[in-house]
Structure formats: structure tokens, C-alpha cells
Design brief:
The protein is of the alpha/beta class. Helices cover about 20% and strands about 25% of the residues. The strands form five sheets. Strands 1, 3, 4, 6, 7, 8, 9, 10, 11, 12 and 13 form an eleven-stranded mixed beta sheet that branches. The protein has a four-stranded antiparallel beta sheet with strand order 14-15-20-19, with no helix packed on it. A hairpin with a 2-residue loop joins strand 3 and strand 4 (about 65-75). The chain is elongated.
Length: about 525
């Protein structure tokens, strides 16, 4: 009897252990936790990838809408990845993965469309609830049930790459008032939402938005070790960056220090690398102010690194960034942000990179501090237009006038210079807006928004509206007799007054010649 009982108990223990193993790698674990019901997978021309964990060397059978589309062998660690046939946009679909020794799992209500990662720091984290007209925007969200959203959690960092997310704030969800309208620093990212919504309105194609960001963070945290090395950073030596940045981190988990080399890349980007994407929206840089030389290397290098690791096979990973908004850190005459904005533009020498300028969107009344302007709708609109032009090849104006060079027409006392612009950035023509300084920033003096610099070291403020000459502007100012012109600047300040636009409403990029 005792022998039989012991055998029976041993058998029960074995069954329990086996069941425990199946739960560990079975339902809910066959697919990565980056995937889920209601998600969007990338449409053609890319083959959407799905991946996860099963028993080591198990054979995974992949089905789409009940039809087998392939078998894939897991590696010795049980990691597997499979590809679905290219799909036109639409849904709903069911994606099933089953392991011969593991079990099965079905992802339901899956759509094919365009998938974007939205990453960066606090201005990307800033949610719809904090934007202008938040109540109306949130109320409209339910009309967009083919936009699906996912938000990575901020409660983990890692010094080594993670296969799975340790924290998820919002699993794949259908857009509605609840999934879009959480707390100001929760979900959904306003820039991410407005960019994706505008693209959906235009393309009528399902959109998947993955929000992965952390306020107050530096680009080093989002870069992999190889990218850091290319720009002269030793990945083993942590940056001298305190958790007292110029952006608020009161909403972040201060028990963790996200401003360490590669820790956010490892924890918040690496788990997504098998994903097939249409592009990335990026809003970051405030916490690298003062590191403009480094940033001009680090930013394009990070983009190239992400492209290498995401390894799209049939397209290029499109990348769209926000040029930093006006901020009162140094008043209109400070230049720290101006130098960082200039460094951001180093990424434009890469193919399939676009930008949205936010320099004219300064918001002194923002409850979250004026470094967090509430007009995220305009930012999203500009990003979506950049995406339409670059990712989808539309022949549309998507950026403001970009100065390329200048030459001197006449020196003092009646100085005249001619600034030339890239012809495809002018749109349907130049437009000029009044020179009005925010009164709380400047009192009793004119904004130095446009200047001519003399050989005598004096900076002369331009007071006349520039003269349009084809794709150039002729700028004049009274300067001292016998003084030569040695340079010119426009909007080159922390909070400049933007007066030059194109007729499509895009602000001219700042310039700094000489």
C-alpha cells in the first residue's frame, strides 16, 4: 500500500511539474509579450514577423486564419521566429502558433497595416490628456477603431538586452476614449496619437502605434553599445548625467536611473527588434543640451544602428524626428537649445529621414512647464506630412524653408546679404509674420530674431522685412561705415521669434552662417 501510495504521489508530482512547465511556456508565452490580441502587423511589402518562446527545439506551426503558413524550429533556448505571407491592409485576422510539445496560442482581431514606434523623452511621453482640447480629442478616439495602441512600461532598465518586456503599461488596445485618454504622463502619447491618426485619416489603412519612451532621458540610454563606441563613448563608463535634467522627471520612477548607457535600448527597444515596421517617430534631445557636438554624431549613428538591428528586408526603416520647441531656459538670446537643434539636423544626410519643426510652438502657459508645449496636434500633423512625403512618396510640401548659403552683396554702412534656400523647401512661396516678442521674456527691447554680424564684433538687428528674390531672401541693415559683414543668424536662440515661413505654414529652419 505504502509503495503504491509513494508511486502515486511521485506520479502526481511529475504531472504537476509538467503542467507547470507547460504553463511557463504554453498559453500566454508562445507569442512574445510584445504581441497580442487587437494588434496591427506590418502590411506588404514586408513580411510580418511573429515570435516567442516554446520548449527548446520545438517545432512551431504557424497558421493565419486557420491555414498553415509555415513551420519554424525553436533554438536551444526555445526562442522562435516565423514570418507570415505578405498581406494587404485590413482584418480582422487570427494568427495561431502551436508547438508540438508546448501547446497553442491564438492572437485574435489582428489587422495588417502600418506600424510605428514612438520613442524619446517627455515630449513624446506627454499624453493626449495634456494636449490642447484634450476632452474633444479623447471623445473622438472611438471613431478610430482600426488604430491600435501599445505602451511599454517604464519600471525597468537593463544592462543587457531583454528578449521580453519586463513591464508593459498598456497592452495592445483598440483606440477609444479609455485607451487614449489616461493620465498626462501615461497613455496614449499625444505626438504618437496625432501622427498616427492623421496618417489613418489620409491613407485609410490600419495603424499600430507602439509608445516606448521615458521622460528626462539622454540619447546614450537609447543607443546600443556599438553605436556609442562609434561616437567616442566607452559603454562601460556611465555618463555624468544626474537625474536633475531640464525636463521634469517627477513622473518617472526615480528608484531607477534610466540615464545610463544602452539601458533603455536594452529594455524598451530590443524586445521589439523582430517587429516589421513602417517607421519611427522620435522626440528627444532636451536632455542632451550642451552636448551638441556629440549629438550630431550620436543621433544619425543611433538611427543607422536601429535600422541595422530591425533589419527590414524589403524597405527602409523610415525615421521622423521633432526639432526641439522653444523653451525659456536662456530666454530668446540663449543658444544652448539652438545648438542642439542644429545638431539634430545632422540626421538629414541619411536617406528616409524627415523632421517636424516645433520651434514656433512655444507655450508659456503649459501647466507642465513651457518645455512641454501643449500643441501636439501641429507636431503630429507635421510628422504625418513628413511620413507621407518620405515613406509614401507623395509630392507634397512637408517642411519649412531651409537656408543653404549666403553671400554679401554690400558691406557697411548699408549692408545687404543674400540668403539662398533649398528650392524644394520654399513651397508656394515665402510668408512673413510680425516681429512680436513674448512680453514676459523680453521687456523694452527688440528680439534679435534676424541679425547681421559685423567685422567689428557688433551684432546688428535686422528691422526690415526681407526682400524675396526667387528662392533667396535679400536682407539689409544699417551698420557702421567701413564694417564688413561676417555672418548672419536667424531664429538661433532658445526661444526665438519665428517670422519666416512658407505659405504652407512651415517655419523656416534656424540658420547660423559665419
Amino acid at each position: 500500500k505504502n509503495i503504491k501510495k509513494k508511486k502515486m504521489m511521485k506520479g502526481i508530482v511529475v504531472v504537476v511539474v509538467l503542467l507547470g512547465c507547460l504553463v511557463g511556456v504554453g498559453l500566454g508565452a508562445i507569442f512574445s509579450n510584445a504581441l497580442g490580441d487587437h494588434m496591427v502587423l506590418q502590411r506588404a511589402p514586408e513580411q510580418a514577423a511573429v515570435w516567442g518562446t516554446v520548449r527548446p527545439r520545438d517545432t512551431v506551426t504557424l497558421k493565419l486564419d486557420g491555414k498553415e503558413v509555415g513551420k519554424f524550429i525553436a533554438n536551444p533556448q526555445g526562442k522562435w521566429k516565423g514570418y507570415l505571407p505578405t498581406q494587404n491592409p485590413g482584418g480582422p485576422h487570427a494568427v495561431e502558433a502551436s508547438g508540438a510539445a508546448t501547446g497553442s496560442q491564438i492572437l485574435s482581431d489582428v489587422y495588417f497595416g502600418d506600424v510605428y514606434i514612438c520613442s524619446g523623452q517627455s515630449n513624446m511621453q506627454f499624453s493626449v490628456l495634456g494636449a490642447f482640447n484634450a476632452s474633444q480629442e479623447i471623445a473622438k478616439a472611438g471613431k478610430y477603431n482600426q488604430i491600435r495602441v501599445f505602451t511599454v512600461g517604464q519600471n525597468s532598465i537593463s544592462h543587457t538586452p531583454l528578449e521580453e518586456f519586463e513591464t508593459i503599461e498598456q497592452r495592445w488596445s483598440i483606440a477609444d476614449a479609455q485607451s487614449i485618454g489616461n493620465g498626462v504622463w501615461s497613455f496614449q502619447s499625444a505626438v504618437c496619437w496625432f501622427s498616427g491618426r492623421d496618417l489613418y485619416d489620409h491613407n485609410k489603412v490600419p495603424v499600430g502605434l507602439i509608445s516606448s519612451n521615458w521622460g528626462g532621458t539622454i540619447i546614450q540610454a537609447w543607443s546600443d553599445p556599438a553605436a556609442l563606441k562609434k561616437c567616442g563613448i566607452n559603454p562601460e563608463i556611465q555618463p555624468e548625467q544626474s537625474l536633475k535634467p531640464i525636463t521634469s522627471t517627477s513622473f518617472s520612477n526615480l528608484k531607477l536611473n534610466p540615464n545610463q548607457n544602452s539601458v533603455l535600448y536594452n529594455a524598451m527597444i530590443y524586445p521589439l527588434l523582430p517587429m516589421r515596421l513602417r517607421g519611427v517617430f522620435w522626440y528627444q534631445g532636451e536632455n542632451n543640451v550642451g552636448q551638441n557636438t556629440y549629438y550630431s554624431c550620436a543621433f544619425p549613428t543611433m538611427i543607422e544602428s536601429w535600422r541595422e538591428h530591425f533589419a527590414l528586408t524589403r524597405s527602409v526603416l523610415n525615421f521622423f524626428f521633432v526639432q526641439l520647441a522653444a523653451y525659456t531656459q536662456g530666454g530668446p538670446y540663449g543658444q544652448n537649445l539652438a545648438l542642439l537643434r542644429q545638431a539634430q539636423l545632422a540626421a538629414l544626410h541619411l536617406n528616409n529621414v524627415g523632421y517636424a519643426s516645433a520651434i514656433d510652438l512655444g507655450d508659456l502657459g503649459s501647466p507642465e512647464g513651457n518645455i512641454h508645449p501643449r500643441d501636439k496636434q501641429t507636431v503630429g500633423s507635421r510628422l504625418s506630412l513628413a511620413a507621407r512625403a518620405i515613406a509614401f512618396g507623395e509630392k507634397i510640401v512637408h517642411q519649412g524653408p531651409m537656408a543653404s548659403s549666403y553671400h554679401v552683396l554690400e558691406n557697411g554702412p548699408n549692408a545687404r546679404i543674400q540668403v539662398s534656400f533649398e528650392p524644394d523647401t520654399i513651397g508656394s512661396g515665402f510668408d512673413f509674420k510680425g516681429n512680436v516678442c513674448p512680453p514676459s521674456l523680453v521687456s523694452g527691447k527688440e528680439c534679435a530674431y534676424l541679425t547681421i554680424e559685423g567685422s567689428n564684433g557688433v551684432v546688428y538687428n535686422v528691422t526690415k522685412t526681407p526682400e524675396v528674390k526667387g528662392s533667396s531672401l535679400v536682407i539689409s541693415a544699417a551698420i557702421a561705415s567701413g564694417v564688413s559683414v561676417v555672418g548672419t543668424k536667424y531664429a538661433f536662440g532658445d526661444w526665438p521669434v519665428c517670422t519666416i515661413f512658407n505659405k504652407e505654414g512651415f517655419p523656416a529652419l534656424p540658420w547660423n552662417f559665419g
